[in-house]
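REQUEST ID: PR-0412
SUBMITTED BY: lab tech R.K.
PRIORITY: routine
TASK: structure prediction, single protein chain
INPUT:
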Amino acid sequence: MRPLLTLLLAFWNVAVFRLRPQDLPRSNVLLVVTAVANVGISLAISAVLDMPAINASVEMCVLVGMTVTLLYAFARSARIVQTLTALLGASAVIGLVVAVLVVMFPNLPYPVRIAIFMWNMFVIAHVLRHALDTLFVLGCLIAFAYALTLDSLLRLLLG
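STATUS: complete
OUTPUT:
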């Protein structure tokens, strides 16, 4: 139980900007665990909100595809495992927060939804800033490009 709490705390610290992706261990097993947790939490939230389950798969593909592409483009491919682990782990933690809120308050107020969206965007920006050795502003632009790409793909797929 202690290792699980240690991992949750580490990903919480990424989600609140205290840890960087390079502070996490480089582990393919941990990457798979965070990916499974992320998809599982996304599927649970989709079920509670009566949203299509495909959202979780598309979100994972866009996040992984864009991140790997960016890391190769910036010649930082050695950072793929830690960066994806940080993104997926922090996203899973944010997802847990969302799941609790949605269960407690099924009709989440719009300002709360916007705040969670912005938190998620800033976490992505934080992780990418460190992974790409760039400015936070560029990380923000990339995070919002990710959100727009995801939204466009979901609209295309779901009509």
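NOTES: Residues 74 and 133 are 9 Å apart (CA to CA).
REVIEWED BY: pending
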